[in-house]
Amino acid sequence: MRVAFFTGLRQVEIREAPEPKLTRPDEVLLRIDRVGICGSDVHYYTTGGIGDQVLEYPATLGHECSGTVLEVGSAVERLRPGDRVAVDPAIFCGQCDQCQAGRSNTCRRLQFLGCPGQAPGAAAEYRVLPAANCLPIPDSMTLEQAALIEPLSIGLYAVRMGDVYVGSRIAVLGTGPIGLSVLACAKAAGPSRAYATDLLDERLSAARRCGADWTGNPKRQDVVADISKLEPEGLDMVFECSGDPACVDQATRLLAPGGTLLLIGIPPSLYVSFHAHLVRTKELTFRAVRRQKGCVASAIRLVSEGLVDTAPLLTHRFPFAQIREAFELVAGYRDGVIKALLDISGA
């Protein structure tokens, strides 16, 4: 079968590898149909790692995916061959202290698709996964929409962590795929006043399609001053989705006393500074968002019921053979790209 590998900085190749086989009764064999290119994939592509997660070449890649069940293990009851599924790429052990505490997203023995030293990446023709990580999608949902469920579930988890309520005053800083997912899920949670910022106008246009009431570009305006004029008492919560350390400072100035900053974006460095006096006197809460937990099924429901529209997120499609072109496009923020999908199977 064909499998994509990172082979060096800014190098990705498709190679032949043996097809995987079922080895446990609770597993399923999937044909991978679509794979999304995530911002974390781009970090691996351009820098070779994220924090202490460093690639050893060759390394498989990808985790945002949808697929079709080809074979099921003897203990699998809720899936059958032909079922189309969205994939939760986090395989947790269920036994460690974190899992027992309901924190499967920080599982001590987590195996995440395409993460160095963990589970094989999704950018391949076939993969074997636990049945529990494969969630059926309704007939009304496309394979492309299903591949977007994973980033959407992160947005939903962040909204739940922030406890967005009807009438909330929120800001989303950075409107790439994750920021747009946060915005769409926040608006689905109920009427709220949402502000969105980004350095790329195409992404601000997508933010308006996802429900942003106001958008601004920090390259052309003082977004903190402009939002503060509209919300002089400050915002209830800010979702930092860009990874830009400057946005942490913007967030602390935008938040009302007692407000919450949710950190979702991946910073380019290991350390980020903040205005300690402002954080202390406002008694702000910082919350880091680690992927998601238990939100995939809810994200499927939001899309299938028409409560969230994934169309603004998906801008580019590539055949599997053009994976390097896809990575170069996304890494360079070219052609208005927000989310690029790889068509693995042609289904």
CATH class of the largest domain: Alpha Beta
CATH third-tier fold name of the largest domain: Quinone Oxidoreductase, Chain A, domain 1
Could you state the oligomeric state of the chains shown? single chain
Number of strands: 20
Q: Which band does the percent of strand residues land in? A: 25-35%
Please, how many domains?
2
Q: Any low-confidence stretches, pLDDT <50, length ≥5?
A: none
Number of helices: 11
Q: Profile the largest sheet.
A: 7 strands, mixed
The shape, in one word, is globular
CATH homologous superfamily of the largest domain - what is it?
Answer: Medium-chain alcohol dehydrogenases, catalytic domain
CATH architecture of the largest domain: Alpha-Beta Complex
Mean pLDDT: 97
